[in-house]
Amino acid sequence: MTQTPTIGFFRMLPLECKKLKRTGCLPAVVLCGLFAAAFPLANMLVRPEAFTTLPGDPLSILADANWQMIAMLNILLSICLCCIMYHTEFADRGIQKSETLPVKAHLLFLGKGTILAVSGIVVILTECAALGFCALHWFPAYTFDSSAAFALLKFAGFQWLMLLPTMLLMLCIASICSNMWTSLGIGIILTFTIYVFPQENLLLGLLPFSTPYHLLSGSVPADQTLLYPAACATETILFALCGAIYPSIRRYHS
Q: Which of 63, 162, 222, 232 is the residue whose CA sits 20 to 30 A from 203?
């Protein structure tokens, strides 16, 4: 009797995308990116003189004025995506049925985490494109040359890395809670609880749900520009390992 081959990661990823086809996740990512990108545009349309008269780099000025709201929307989007992703698994006991398939348990989590990370790239690039457009259109001294493009991409990469621990922690929570409303409630509570913590405190500032508010050119001190990415990368790997290991433990005890 031949053994059915186990489905690998690269075969699992398209299957995970198909699961989300009718969940509204893709429209949610696009709409959230556009909605968040509208904030700097609205600010510049309503009161451009409040920003164009400020000294400093236009991108930093625009990010300082708008990123708090943008980061909040990114966190809320992450919560919704994670809850929906695992709601499709827990609905009608789908996750128990998947345990009978030739699928490694940890690949379900890693596949969803990959889709989540790519969604974060799409959203943040859309938001950074809006910041770049505002800087180019309203700041006469700003020129979009190769150095400006590099600075914008560097900013986008930093903010994406700041968002990853929040995404992976929320995905872990959603994978544990079979009830979507429980994981949604936990995510909302963490969002608004950690938001009121003092961001100046280094340890509190490195917590998930807090790191997305930090800016490369703003709240992060110059001597800590490597500390924050290193901490976020470590947290991301840690949550990814926890999320990948937990399904095997759950399968063992079920």
A: 63
